[in-house]
Design a protein that fits this description.
421 residues, mainly beta, Methylamine Dehydrogenase, Chain H, four-stranded antiparallel beta sheet
Length: 421
């Protein structure tokens, strides 16, 4: 049995947001998509000389790095050479350990997208990578050392905006939502073999890009939470594929951010090209087939692309236009709302009392994850970035358009793994 999520202290609906996996960052936005990491003495602002390492990529992209143990995996694409690359790096040194190349997917793209924007997922033995080739969606499994394991053709893929659909692995299965412009589906594949275990149909409409999260509905049942404009927020039994509850049309515009579960609530946002329109806090039902209820909505400065973050009793929102909000998790009551400036497609992550995000121009902004607003630091990376950072091994990993950079603890802090250059 895979253990990606079984090493948590709790799952979202257990009533705590302290869901931390000590060393791993196994999917987009880390453990259960929470954005919460473990690190001590992370600097809020730094100089280029403070990086533990930098690694150049053989192409560009917006996919986020995932980590398991000493392995960091990320993708890049170079249309000029015709290569879509999956790369494995040593997480402590930045040494490139392996590279697997595939034909670059030539398909329609939004002006802010790339051919390598979907993030991989990892578990203790494998990494799962989505890509489009010949207008078809493929999911490939590799070992953490880059050896091929299996590859599955998931069928036609149609959206003018391009790929950004990222899988997750949970309890020995890989889950992926194919929410594109045509009739889609959610698939569950056996992680060891790629065998289709179940599928759930999805309505045609606009492509949605939410990555699911997992919540516990009982001692024995776990539910996957999926967002889309057409099918609303729905809970799907991870074992059987049964849709156990659904709130139709609760998201009345496209859902690009990913849901989180915290404090007995599920949170999702929606919006359009102009930005976020609102966040909805949904209270899942206590029994299968009952309807969820809306606990509250937040409409002022709601994010469209960046996902929400819950920490303790607080809900943090980081809007596309650089407005950060801190609200009461239970009620949505605003505690503060401040403009930090810049534009953001990356989602915020948190560790060491800091809320961290990266602007589209590549500026890392850190604010205090607290009831009072404090701007802690700004650090320019020198290159654009749309990718969400990763936190693992006591370090912060940030992917820019063509590089991955690693930041360790503050010098002299005596924390974290030893620096290796």
């Amino acid at each position: 049995m895979k253990t990606t999520l079984l090493r948590w202290l709790a799952v979202g609906m257990a009533g705590t947001t302290g869901i931390l996996l000590a060393q791993e960052w196994p999917r987009f936005r880390g453990p259960n998509g929470s954005g919460l990491g473990q690190a001590a003495a992370l600097p809020a602002q730094w100089a280029p000389s403070d990086f533990a390492w930098k690694a150049r990529l053989p192409g560009t992209g917006h996919s986020s790095p995932v980590l398991w143990g000493e392995r960091l995996v990320v993708t890049a694409a170079d249309p000029a050479t015709g290569h879509f690359s999956v790369l494995g790096f040593h997480a402590d040194t930045g040494a490139r350990l392996w590279q697997r190349d595939y034909p670059v997917p030539h398909h329609g793209l939004h002006r802010n997208n790339t051919f390598a924007s979907a993030s991989a997922a990892a578990d203790g033995s494998q990494v799962y990578v989505p890509r489009v080739q010949d207008d078809r969606l493929w999911l490939t499994a590799l070992t953490l050392d880059g050896a091929p394991v299996w590859e599955v053709d998931l069928g036609g893929f149609n959206t003018e905006h391009g790929l950004g659909h990222s899988p997750i692995e949970h309890d020995g299965r890989v889950f992926l939502a194919q929410d594109h412009d045509d009739l889609g589906r959610i698939v569950a594949l056996e992680a060891a073999t790629g065998r289709l275990v179940w599928e759930v149909p999805r309505s045609a409409g606009y492509a949605d890009y939410s990555v699911p999260c997992v919540l516990a509905s009982s001692a024995t049942s776990q539910v996957l939470v999926f967002n889309s404009q057409e099918d609303g927020i729905s809970g799907v039994d991870a074992r059987t594929g049964t849709v156990v509850w659904r709130s139709d049309r609760v998201l009345r515009m496209r859902s690009v951010s990913s849901p989180i579960a915290a404090g007995n609530l599920v949170f999702g946002t929606c919006g359009s090209g102009g930005g976020g329109h609102y966040l909805v806090a949904l209270r899942p039902p206590n029994r299968d087939q009952a309807r969820p209820s809306v606990a509250y909505e937040i409409r002022k400065a709601a994010p469209y692309v960046p996902s929400p973050l819950a920490l303790g009793d607080h809900l943090f929102l980081w809007s596309d236009g650089g407005i950060v909000t801190c609200a009461r998790l239970a009620t949505g009551t605003s505690l503060w709302q401040e403009r930090v400036g810049g534009n953001f497609f990356s989602s915020p992550v948190a560790a060491d009392g800091k809320l961290i995000n990266v602007s589209t121009t590549g500026e890392v902004v850190a604010v205090a994850a607290a009831e009072s607003f404090v701007l802690l630091g700004r650090t320019p990376l020198g290159e654009a970035s749309h990718a969400t950072p990763a936190i693992a091994r006591g370090r912060l990993y940030v992917r820019t358009l063509s590089q991955v950079v690693c930041l360790g603890p503050e010098k002299g802090s005596g924390t974290g793994p030893p620096r290796e250059d």
